[in-house]
Design a protein that fits this description.
By secondary structure, the protein is α/β, with parallel strands linked by helices. The chain has helices at residues 59-77, 90-94, 98-109, 118-132, 170-176, 185-198, 200-209, 219-230, 246-256, 261-264, 272-291, 304-313; strands at residues 10-17, 21-29, 35-44, 83-88, 113-115, 140-145, 150-155, 160-166, 213-217, 241-243, 296-300.
Length: 314
């Protein structure tokens, strides 16, 4: 973001180029650090499809990505934004042709894409979650599950004390591990054994800082909330956060791991692109809850995009 800040009220557009979806958020940002959302949209892209295992953006995914950016830029321009910022995350930063991809976006769409590190991504996620939830004085564990990477942050309202990005996103896991439909017990065990090895730094940090609240953001946790709201299990509100009781999550988890893709596509509140990935995602969340002394789980509707607005406003 190169030190840019908001001095007068401005309309800004943020494009978050994730591994599975490209997200757009257009908002008015005022000098008092507040933003008013004008428009938002999500487009399925599957940028990592077929290429995460060998760090490449495949031609069909490349084309879907360009088309999505063109659509988002067109939508954003209806609001006459002073600036359109675009951030590329795991799939682009790890791809050996990622720089060529963002150069192609510049050529076709006229916007400059910043490829951000996993650490920068985690910092923006933290700033976004802070806009939705008062993190208080005690440490919380924030988790953003993406398609290519998952970001963990341990923080309170004042500061981050630890963060790390892990290449354990749901698309990456599904390309690495073949799972049945529905997933089998031994396949879950294989995934959990892999998580145990890969997440060793997280376990050390949790032992040190002892967070007891898990705050989940982005598509997986939005899906949990949407499903439960459709079932009137979680109260339908306009708040940018919600509590997901642990016993309620465990029941939903048990249901999801027993379903086929065809059955998941019929679940109200679960969008089709999430139906593909929600099983591996819920296995990951359930593993975290089993391994750590978590006593409360919250969902944040705000994440990287809102964090970028917060950083601009400051």
């Amino acid at each position: 973001m190169n030190g840019t800040s908001i001095r007068n009220s401005s309309t800004i557009a943020i494009i978050d180029m994730g591994t599975n979806t490209f997200n757009l958020l257009v908002a008015d940002v005022s000098p008092d650090k507040k933003f008013k959302i004008l428009f938002e949209n999500k487009l399925p892209v599957k940028l990592g499809e077929g290429g995460l295992s060998n760090n490449e953006i495949k031609p069909e995914a490349w084309k879907r990505g360009i088309n999505a950016i063109e659509k988002h830029v067109s939508d954003a321009k209806r609001f006459n934004p002073q600036q359109i910022y675009a951030f590329a995350t795991s799939a682009t930063r790890d791809a050996r042709n990622g720089k060529e991809f963002v150069a192609d976006i510049k050529k076709h769409c006229g916007i400059t894409v910043e490829i951000i590190t996993g650490q920068h991504e985690a910092e923006l996620i933290y700033l976004g979650v802070k806009q939705a939830i008062n993190l208080g004085n005690t440490y919380n564990l924030i988790l953003d599950i993406g398609g290519g990477s998952n970001e963990f942050i341990i923080a309170n309202n004042d500061k981050i004390v630890w963060l790390q990005s892990f290449n354990l996103g749901v698309s990456r896991l599904m390309q690495k591990f073949t799972t049945s439909d529905p997933i089998q017990v031994e396949e879950i065990q294989t995934l959990e054994e892999y998580f145990t090895v890969q997440l060793a730094p997280l376990f050390d940090a949790v032992q040190k800082f002892k967070p007891t609240t898990l705050i989940g953001c982005s598509g997986t946790f939005d899906s949990f909330r949407n499903i439960l709201e459709h079932r009137n299990i979680v109260k339908l509100t306009q708040d940018p956060w919600s509590e997901i009781p642990l016993d309620v999550f465990r029941e939903l988890h048990s249901e999801l791991i027993r379903t086929t893709l065809e059955e998941r596509l019929q679940i109200k509140g679960l969008v089709s692109i999430r139906a593909e990935f929600i099983v591996v995602a819920t296995v990951f969340v359930n593993f975290i809850l089993k391994k750590l002394s978590i006593t409360q789980m919250l969902q944040s509707s705000y994440s990287l995009k809102e964090g970028a607005f917060a950083k601009l406003a400051n």
